[in-house]
Amino acid sequence: MIEISKNLCYNQDKGTQGTGVNRTMLAEERMRAILEILERKRAASVAELCLETGASEATIRRDLNELDRQGKISKVHGGAVLPQEEFEAQEPDVQVKSQRNIEQKERIARYAAAQIQDDDFVFIDAGTTTLRMADYLGGSKATFVTTGIECAKKLVEKGLRVYVPGGMLKPGTQALVGAVTRESLAKYNFTKAFIGTNGVTVKQGFTTPDTEEASIKTLAVERSYLSYVLADSSKFGKVSAVTICPLSKACILTDQMPDDSYAGKTIIKEVD
After folding, report:
1. CB 125 within 8 Å of CB 194
2. Which of 61, 84, 87 is nearest to 73 (CA)?
3. Mean pLDDT throughout 153-180?
4. Which fold has domain 87-270?
5. Has residue 210 got a pLDDT over 80?
């Protein structure tokens, strides 16, 4: 069983003792298998699930009842389907986004800033959660590169060493994008990158509505030794038009993981 730790940013195996715990483990593994089948097929009958898991019809029906209760699936006559994912086609502007989930963003940003060491060469993405990181970086001797104009201003005001690539400033998100930005970032080798996202799903990975911003985020992940995606719990289950990268390419920093379907897909840290 993969457990999401609130204290450590890594996956850990949880030991078991006794037959009662083993039965629970088997049930959890079976329900995870059901979710994986539905992610692959989008819908499955009870008979199909029995065939693929080797469980009885009564057992599968109990599992479907439990998964439906948890909101992870939708039961239909004779089987189950995955709930419809919420699609976000448009990028809200900075003013709107900055008023959402303020407390959660602050906690995530504070933890993210604490991961930066003085010898790091850091990329900070444009975004309302990544912007809050600057508030917790006073005195840092790390070197920063950011595509967020507001973030750059905050870092400079704290006396930090900051590089801003060239490029076009995008209205709304106030992020630098375009070929010139990509050309600049392609020269760097970051030790850590901190990325914002609009959506997080197991199948589509990390997503964002704008192709140009997605391109910059993808490049930053590729050029970084270690990447973190800052995503409050409202981002899970949402899909935007463009994939930044699969879940396996970055650690997730969040206030709360909505369910265990993400477990084992990447390293996840639920911040306090």
Report:
1. yes
2. 84
3. 95
4. Rossmann fold (3.40.50)
5. yes
